[in-house]
Amino acid sequence: MESGTNAFLEVLRMAFGDLAPGWVLVLGSTLLAVGGALTLIAVNALFATWLERKVSGHIQCRFGPMYVGGWHGWAQSLADGIKLITKEDLVPRGGDRTLFMFAPALLLAAIFGAMVAFPITPQIYFANVDLGVYFILGLSALTTIGVVMAGWASNSKWSLYGAMREAAQVVAYEVPLGISLLVPVMVAGTFNLLDASAEQSGWYGMHWFIFRNPFMIPALVLFFVASLAETKRAPFDLPEAESELVAGFMTEYSGIRWSFFFMEEYAAMLLMSAVAAVFFLGGFESPLTHFANALWGDKLFVTADGVTSLSLAGLPYHLAAGLTLILKALFGVFMMMWLRWTLPRIRIDQVMTMGYKYLTPLSLLCVLGAGIWEAIRS
Amino acid sequence: MDERSTATEQLEARVREAQVAGGGEQEFMLDVRTQDMEVNFGPQHPATHGVMRVLMRTDGELCTGAQPHLGYLHRCAEKIGENVEWLQYLPYTDRYDYLAAMNNNLGYSMAVEAVLGIEIPRRAEMLRVICAELNRIGSHLIAFGTYGLDIGAFTPFFYAFREREWMQALFEKICGARLTYSYIRIGGVFNDAPPGWLEEVALFCDTFEQKWPEYYDLLIENQIFIKRTANVGIIPHDMALDFGLTGPMLRASGIDFDLRRDLPYSLYGEIWKDGAFRIPVGKGEKGHLGDCWDRTWVRMVEMMESIKIVRWCLAHIEEGPVLGDLPKTLRVPPGEAYVGIENPRGELGHYVVSGGDKVALRVRVRGPSFTNLAVLEDLLPGSLVGDAIAIIGSTDIVVGETDR
User: Fold this and answer.
1) Does the predicted TM-score (pTM) go above 0.80?
2) A56 in contact with B, Cβ within 8 Å
3) Which of A188, B56, B110, B191 has the fewest CB within 10 Å, making it most exposed?
């Protein structure tokens, strides 16, 4: 893996290398990456809301949206987006105006920052962060501050309840979330998402971490449960518990600011699932990517004598890799939706008990077991 | 002010007592002392099932006091009963417990019939029982579905409504209305069943019997659901009697009392003697006797018992008239009668007094939701906010009837 290859920069350099100075290219590539990450969040929110409606609809003997746009209501989310943008942006009387307006922005900024570490293919990414996993976990935990801010600034008791629940829940589940990730990190020997994924090639693209260590499967389960709590998804949707707290911290929000909470939720779901896919389920690796690599090679950008050039032969591999990761991540998202429309909600004390008394010790045990296993094996 | 602070002290003492006595994760509750906060649950709140308001005092996630406030849906039903003719009052009975309108019709009609002292044709009685039991299923389906919503499971609600939709379609075929039926009339029923209706009811019974275990497994046996409802909102034997609870709430506390068997009306005595149905009584299977899980379980099992009653009726129904011979303008001889029937929510009593006129002197309704609701004030203090929702949901009140 050539770290430091920035696909956006390389493309710009190839196109405008003779015309513009270096710093313009760097700035341009950064803007492209930022735009790309934002687009990813927005497109993901559009797609995931549609998917959620379809999944919930089919689980509940309904069809979900069917009319807008023609085919299975594909444009429903777009129509909703237009509706949300044109809605009145209300700030409740007695609320803290500044904080109220700022909270969704902070929330979105945090998840947007985390999204930057999301790899698209092995050579196309927004940023190759060496501490990728902890960058993602750290920034997505920052969204909690946005939620607490929103709950406090709303001047509503329901919002306050939601915010306090979110704070308590995230503090409790951040620990098992991070610790359970240590298991694959130990096997991989890296925090970098691209390196971890590359580690898992072999066995015709099936040499996934989950098959390498018996403690990997419980670690994946722990990670999945903790990520449900982290992303406020059912059965841990207490911060927005519809039947208890009306809509929790979002109660007073409307219009586009409200939609920011949604974008954040779906982006967090995608990110968490992508992290699980990279660190447990092989990342970019699958038989598809393996054969694409074997047939056409894996380099989209080839560096020879200090000159980088585009090599279209690597395109099938990169398409396969991108598709593999996004499908694995979407499978995780689908699992979260499936659970949400099946399970009842847990009570707050049970959430705490589960986090502190079961998930944390169990994840520690997993780390211990996996460490011993790795030590014996090597 | 002074009076209020004494009441507050008493309440706090009671809460502490409940904390010491109750089971569950107690250490969580007593960690931090914070200032109490008063929260209005309702009138517009998804978990109050209508326009009820519960004023709740909370200490963090702990509920330290609760006071249900009623009257948002008061429509003077009983007073109207003294101002309209006997038959004209019937549509008003539909509107207090709008989820069990057939049962309300039945209760009122039977009370008036008791004053009149008339016999009802047998086919009419059969149709009455079929409709009342189908409506009980529909009502319990709502209870089951919305209770799932309260606990946070959204999907059972849709399954419940799918079956209820069929039930409503059946009622639409027999009387033209889907919610406020006015089908059961003084002296019989409004109309005979259309051709093929009874067969469709049988088909509904078959389908429902297949679907019911799925719902039971999906929600009632769900581990999270059990965790949320077992040992929550326990109503002990004595407390249930003291508050005059009736219906599933009473039976969930282990008291085997059902008006259909113990004060048999209509055909229920005959059906019971035939051994066609059982009365489910709470056993405290998953937690403590009389908890929220027991109440939901009793409702679930009752649905299947209702199916059995409907099947018995379908097997024994004969041709015949469906409406007794009554004048257009009914004049009821002087007298009074109280008739209590087993509504899906408990005992629905109608007390009617006639002065021999076209209009009643007095129509008094004893509603089960109203009586069952009283228990909230004692049940909620000492529970968590999430539990409070579970408890309010498990009382299965219909606000239209508490306020009338």
Assistant:
1) yes
2) yes
3) B191
Q: Check if B384 contacts A (Cβ < 8 Å).
A: yes
Best to test chain B binding among A338, A349, A356 (most B CBs inside 10 Å): A349
Please give the full DSSP string across B339-350, using - where no structure is assigned.
EEEEETTEEEEE
Assign A118 to helix, strand or coil.
coil
Distance from CA of B70 to the nearest CA of A (A): 20
Give per-residue burial for B276-315: e unless 16+ CB within 10 Å, then b: bbebbbbebebbbbbbbbbbbbbbbbbbbbbbbbbbbbee
**φ, ψ for residue B28 (rounded to 5)?**
-60, -35
What CA–CA distance (Å, rounded) separates B49 from B38? 20
Domain B77-371 carries which CATH code?
1.10.645.10
pLDDT string in tens for chain A (378-residue length): 344 556 777 777 777 777 777 777 778 877 887 888 888 888 888 888 899 989 988 888 888 888 888 888 888 888 888 888 888 888 888 878 888 888 888 888 888 888 888 888 877 777 777 888 888 888 888 888 888 888 888 888 888 888 888 888 888 888 898 899 888 888 888 888 888 887 787 777 778 888 888 888 898 999 999 988 888 887 888 777 666 777 778 888 888 888 888 888 888 888 889 889 888 888 888 888 888 777 877 777 776 666 667 777 778 888 888 888 889 999 999 999 998 888 888 888 888 888 888 989 999 998 999 888 888 887
- Give the nearest chain B residue to A352 (CA atoms): B28
Record: contact A348-B24, CB cut-off 8 A: no
- All structural domains of chain B with their residue ranges: 77-371
- SS3 percent helix, strand, coil of chain A, rounded to 5, is 70, 5, 25
CA distance B146 to chain A (A): 10
B45 contact A CB<8A:
yes
- Tell if the CB–CB gap between B153 and A60 is shorter than 8 Å: no
CA distance A171 to B306: 49
Q: Which two tokens stand for residue A358?
A: 């079961």
Q: SS3 of A200, please? A: coil
What is the C-alpha separation between A143 and A305, in angstroms, rounded?
44
Strand partners, B352: B337, B363
Best of A160, A250, A343 to substitute, by most chain B Cβ atoms within 10 angstroms, is: A343
